[in-house]
Amino acid sequence: LVNLRSSCSESLQLLDFCYREDNSQTLKLLTAQLPHWGYQNCLSLAVMVNHKRFLAHPCCQRLLAELWHGSLRVRSGSNLRVLAALLCPPAALALAYKTSRVSSEIPTNIDDEVETPSLSAVAKMRAFYAAPITKFWLWCITFIIFLTLFSYVLLIETPINPTTIEYITLSYIVVYMVEHIRKVLEYLSAHPLLGPYIQMAAKMVVSMFYIIVLLLVTLMAFGVSRQAITYPHEKWNWLLVRNIFYKPYFMLYGEVYAGEIDTCGDEGDFICVKGDTFEGTNCVPGGWIPPVLMTIFLLVANILLINMLIAIFKCVSFS
What we know:
Blueprint: H1 2-21, H2 23-30, H3 42-48, H4 52-55, H5 58-69, H6 78-87, H7 121-130, H8 132-155, H9 164-189, H10 195-230, H11 238-251, E1 270-273, E2 276-279, H12 289-318
Antiparallel strand pairs: 1-2
Helix pairs in contact: 1-2, 6-8, 8-9, 9-10, 10-11, 10-12
């Protein structure tokens, strides 16, 4: 504990000395990556150990202010100017911008060189909405709007059919929930016990994507052929799109719909189509093709691709 306090005090003294000697070089040192410390930098390490006195130093505060304002060259009244530009987007073009953009993330270097005399209108709008201060106030405004709409929905009588306001509030809630799930996963990924499993699951999802594409191709090929041959007299309906995927998808889990594989001849009567005689009311020209295609589909999908996916998961878990 004594060594920790001594190190914190020495780091603060060193920062103060460097800042008085050359503030621009000190800013670069604060954001330089340290290979022996997991490619972190001094500023991020100070945040990790909660070194408040180090972060409260004018040098760190200047750097944090640069990061907070992004590419905006605004200091006094920045909040009011950003709010005005959010309410009236063309006003963002009148703000001053840095030509060498400071990233909203902790940068590796601070470069104050001027690359171009000025920014275009599109570049200014992009830089304005990418600034952390803009994102913060934009989030605040949208959250206030959400609370207002949500309160309105709760206070009035619920209509039979959902309104536009209800769809807006529901969309916001879904996005908000997804964002919190992402933050929870980021926290769990750093957990000493759950973290490795979260990382393993993430790698599995990436590996699974390619198998899913192959499964989708085979499923669509079989589903379209099966639907077209088995039900040749269908009229256009969006249910046709569902039927392409519906039964072939559940076949992947073992439901083969055995009673519907080949029903031609089950009822014992005969029909005639263009000179050809078929037995059973469910007989259609080429009715023998879907069972053959289903056999090929199950061999490729259930046996080949699914087992390939399991093998990939095993490789990921052992790597």
